[in-house]
Amino acid sequence: MDITLQEKTKRKRKLTPGEWFEEYGSTLLFIVPTFIMFLLLTVYPILWVYKYMFYDYDGITKATFTGFDNLVRAFTRDPDWWQSVLVTFKIAFLKLIIEIPLATLTAVIINEPRIKGKGLFRGVYFLPTVTSAAVMSVVFSFIFSPYNGILNSILMNLGIINSSIDFLGNPTSALVCCTVISVWQIFGQNTLLILSALQGISQDVYESAEIDGAGRFKCFLHISVPLMMPTFRIILMLAIIGSLGVFDSVYVLTAGGPQGATTTMAVAMYMRLFGEGIPEYGYTAALSAIYSVISGLLTIIYLTISKKTSEIY
Amino acid sequence: MAKIITNNKRINIPELLIRGVMYAILLAIAAVTLFPVVYSLLGGFKTTQELMTSSSLIPKSFSFENYVYVWDRVNFGRYTFNSLVVTVAVVLVQMLMSTMTAYAFSRRDFRFKKIIRMMYISVLFIHAGTATLYPKYQLIVDMGINKNFLGLIFAESAAPITAILLVEGYLAGISKSFDEAAKIDGCSFVKTFTHIIFPMMLPVICVNALLAFRSVWNAYLMPMIITAGNDKLQLLSVAIVELKSGGAGMATNWAAILAAVNISIVPVVLVYIICNKQFISGVSAGGVKG
Hints:
Chain A has helices at residues 2-12, 17-52, 69-76, 79-111, 118-126, 133-143, 150-157, 171-199, 203-211, 216-244, 248-253, 265-274, 281-306; strands at residues 55-56, 64-65. Chain A has one domain: MetI-like fold. Chain A is 72% helix and 1% strand. Chain A has a two-stranded antiparallel sheet with strand order 1-2. Chain A is globular, with a radius of gyration of 26 Å. With 313 residues, chain A is mainly α. Chain A is built from 13 helices and two strands. The longest helix of chain A is centred in the first third of the chain and has 36 residues, at 17-52. In chain A, β1 and β2 (64-65) form a beta hairpin. The two termini of chain A are 38 Å apart. With 290 residues, chain B is an all-alpha fold. Chain B has a domain at 78-253 and 277-289: MetI-like (MetI-like fold). Chain B contains 16 helices and no strands. Chain B starts with a helix and ends with a helix. Chains A and B meet through α2, α4, α5, α6 and α7 of A and α2, α3, α5, α6 and α7 of B.
């Protein structure tokens, strides 16, 4: 009682600058710089997009408010944009159906108690994620090259093909090439996450199942899979959202070609902002907002289905 | 017990087979994973002609000609320096931001704390798309820092939300009695942070610094936009892509381009090999939570 009274009188007394700094100023010093950077580099660009989606703006003449014109144009007169939405989903889908099984397979094998060199395999699979997507795509463009590209010479030496294939010149194979790079780069991260989920499962559960006569496969299906589910859902969600924003590898490898076959949403927007021709900032902001809603909706749908919101914070 | 042992003996051969298949799968995937990196590392020593005609992965002789060429003639010494300056600066700035914010969040109560924290977390779920590049770029131009390092450093120094949350989680495990003891001994809030708590946070700071290093060193899009038409300021990643798509006559010098690629990937791969554990723990912790 006495202490709280003392505290109160202490608070009411006017603070010296030193005391004020110790009490309040230091908190400000610790919080404000980051918060300013947050406002400038994170909040402001988001607000900019949601404002200028309603404007006609080319960066030179004054922006004019046009209401929903940009959105109407995007939804009714812009097949190119919806083509890029489709391309993005194709890449995302292809990537997921290769990447998730691959990551699960490698994680499950590495987790086997009888396998040696766990750390080494995990380390190798994770290695691509520390390299630059843009820089490694330069290497991949040599590998895929029709003229003396190493992939073509390997396939020809093996007798699988007779003449070299222009992997990046054909719409379907270009799309596959872009996906391959994304999978190559990121599957190790998922291996790692699935592996740590597997290792979190207590060994006792397996032992008691084995005593009950469950085989290895049954153990995996009825113990590992259900117990991994929460982590698995989060990995899947992050993979979906991540795939939607693919830019670096696609831009470097194909620049969106051939004939827009690999133009993802991110590449399409970039071209309209910084490509040739008169930039349409207002219209691109509207496209960006559509992208934002698509990715937001996917997240919401995903979180509702999995009902595991609590797993993420 | 005896029954189980005989059982084990009987399945010995299929067991070996299964193990063999498992190793084969792991090795095959590892080979495909390593191939592009090894191809580039070894290709950097070849001549362009050898690169295009020889089917052998190993170069005939290990010559550093390509490295000398890109380092001196194509200015890669300069680009490496640029990448180093920007990466070190951004990592330092982000480490300061994440530790200070997390420390205030964890040890102080203040108005708007909940709101600010919620704003930080909610932007992890908002993706406003590529159009946000333009206001960022315009902001940097308006600030007049697009022609020097400040612009690049500023562009990459967004508030490190995931790092903040990781540090906050770590601080929750450091007892507040350390702070109280320091206060009784006459340490100020700032001094407690710099002298008592900061050293205790080093493990988590290392993890965050590595992840930040990786993302800044490899950054491509924003640096490309800022340094467009400004050759002197270019970072490694941007310069390499430009080398591939660009300069007359240079486009065909594949071996030189691979040497340039290696200048960019070798440092980050080396850091990864040395700090493998920290990288992996960072991704396991941060990956699932953000």
